[in-house]
Amino acid sequence: MEIKVITSAQNEYIKKLSKLKDKKQRDELRLFIAEGEHLVEMVKGSNYEIKDTVVTKSYFDKNRDKLSDDVTVVADSLFLKISDAKTPQGI
Q1: Residue 45, exposed/middle/buried by CB under 10 A (0-12, 13-18, 19+)?
Q2: Is 62:37 a contact under the CB 8 Å cutoff?
Q3: Of 30, 43, 71, 83, which shows the fewest CB atoms inside 10 Å?
Q4: Could you tell me if 68 and 3 are in contact, meaning their C-beta atoms sit under 8 angstroms apart?
Q5: DSSP symbols for 17-69
Q6: What's 48's DSSP letter?
Q7: Cα(65)–Cα(74) distance, integer angstroms
Q8: Secondary structure (3-state) at 7
Q9: Burial group, residue 71, by CB count within 10 angstroms (0-12, 13-18, 19+)
Q10: CA 38 to CA 18: how far, in whole Å?
């Protein structure tokens, strides 16, 4: 498992992910975010290709043994920039 860590809000990847909140950007980039454990598991069982799994530092610390794919770990505060959920699950 490869682990990437992002700590800066100025990171281009974080900026790209936050743009996916906008439908026009999702359509243009042909990408979307599946947020939460349940949706991530549903996508894994589908025909969609998972480009990346992004988790918060706190989620990673608690669930590292459950993660088998490559992951990008971001600060909890950065996850809020890319999340649509009112109470994000951290994945």
Answers
A1: exposed
A2: no
A3: 30
A4: no
A5: HHHTTSHHHHHHHT-----SHHHHHHHHTSSPPP--EEEEHHHHHHHGGG--S
A6: P
A7: 17
A8: coil
A9: buried
A10: 21
Q: What angle do CA 40, 48, 90 make, to 5 degrees?
A: 20
Rounded Cα–Cα distance for residues 4 and 58 (Å): 15
First CA to last CA distance, the chain:
16
Contact 26, 17 (CB under 8 A): no
Tens digit of each residue's pLDDT, the chain (91 residues): 899 999 999 999 999 999 999 999 999 999 999 999 999 999 999 999 999 999 999 999 999 998 888 899 999 999 999 998 889 999 9
What is the pTM for the complete model shown? 0.87
Cβ–Cβ < 8 Å for 20, 82: yes
Q: What's phi and psi for 10, nearest 5 deg?
A: -85, 0
